[in-house]
Amino acid sequence: MPHREKTRILLVDDVPENLLALEALIRRDDVVVHKAASGDAALELLLAHDFALAILDVQMPGMDGFELAEFMRGTEKTKHIPIVFVTAGGRELNYAFKGYESGAVDFLHKPLDAHTVKSKVNVFVDLYRQSKVLKHQLETLERNRQEQEALLQELTETQEELRKAITIRDEFMSIASHELKTPLTSLKLQIQLRQRYLKKGDASAFTIDKIAKMVESDDRQIQRLIRLIDDMLDISRIRSGRLTVHPATFDLSELVRDVVDRFSEQLAAAGCTVTLTVPGPVVGYWDHFRVEQVVINLLTNAMRYGAGKPVTIVLEAGDGRARLSVRDEGIGIAEEHQARIFQQFERVVSASQIGGLGLGLYIVDQIVRAHGGSIRVESALGKGSTFIVELPVEGNRASDAS
Ligand code: ADP
């Protein structure tokens, strides 16, 4: 606390007896008196300590009291120290020093009167202490203000983040409802149609061929629903750090071939031919289900955004890594969007063009990371895209996707 610090007073006089006499007059327990016998000695002390008051003898050989005072007023550190001149001369000398504007100046006249000296010194000591307390209070106030400002800034940022999160959530809710509703509406219409035939007793809509088509179409809609719900569940798993990887040893080339086989009809319906190049078995230690999810996602994206053009899948192995690239010749992705498509809810096309929640690549990225691998895209707008996944063959034995 500044007011508990001792207060320093500087006495400057070339006559040692004067210094001692003055010191005896102003001695107080809470005051430290520094004495200097010349202007030069005084300057040294002035630069080393903070003084509440300097009492200067006007008449000194070398640098006199006024010269010392001029110097003090011209120096930042000593500019505001109140000065009391001790003079033997008459009161007309009072105005010989012109440095009034920068700080207090007062005069003591010889012979010194004990009471006057004491009360003058007390005034300056009190003033000094009050100004110290005030300075401390001001500093505290300023600190508080800065803290409040920082807090306000933080609050504003949080508010902005919240607002963004709410907007994203609202958009997501509306896209998700739309995406869920589309297959459900289609299923409902099919059912209504069948009910009409049944009511009329018309069996022509239920030949083996037609039932086979119905089942296939129903299954497609249901698969679509399942995929959407699975994606949403995966997102909540990733958020809570529960997307764990359960690795086992398997052949990735077999998995890729199998996925392409399973999607052959859908690919054909989309008009995409698929060329698959695999070097032979690529055995690694990965989570079969999750890696399958990655392959399905990249393949269905190539199909959905591939504009019915050929899709080329290449699997390679080397340097302890497996590399899978899925290339399409479809709509492509402009450079400025290529980084954000791996973030959740980020889409480049609008839902009315091609439906989707913008979750697939985010989940893929999380799965690949959980395996210690990486994913990137090379693409040009209108020319097509190549997604390249690299997985360490040893997987990432002690990791999850949190
Ligand atoms: P979704 O396809 O459900 O929107 P994804 O996370 O799989 O979600 O993809 C995010 C976005 O990246 C897509 O909306 C699309 O704009 C873009 N995208 C993904 N794959 C391709 C691709 N093969 N070609 C062009 N754009 C793609």
UniProtKB/TrEMBL annotation:
Keywords (A to Z) from UniProt: ATP-binding, Cell membrane, Coiled coil, Kinase, Membrane, Nucleotide-binding, Phosphoprotein, Transferase, Two-component regulatory system
GO CC terms: plasma membrane
Domain Response regulatory span(s) in chain numbering: 8-125
UniProt KW Transferase keyword: yes
Tree of life domain: Bacteria
EC number: 2.7.13.3
Pfam family, one: Response_reg
Start and end residues of each Histidine kinase domain: 175-395
Subcellular location field: Cell membrane
GO MF terms, alphabetically ordered: ATP binding; phosphorelay sensor kinase activity
Top-level enzyme category: transferase
Catalytic activity: ATP + protein L-histidine = ADP + protein N-phospho-L-histidine
Sections of the chain in a coiled coil: 131-165
The keyword Zinc is annotated on this UniProt entry: no
Residue numbers carrying 4-aspartylphosphate: 57
Protein name: histidine kinase
Originating species: Gulbenkiania indica
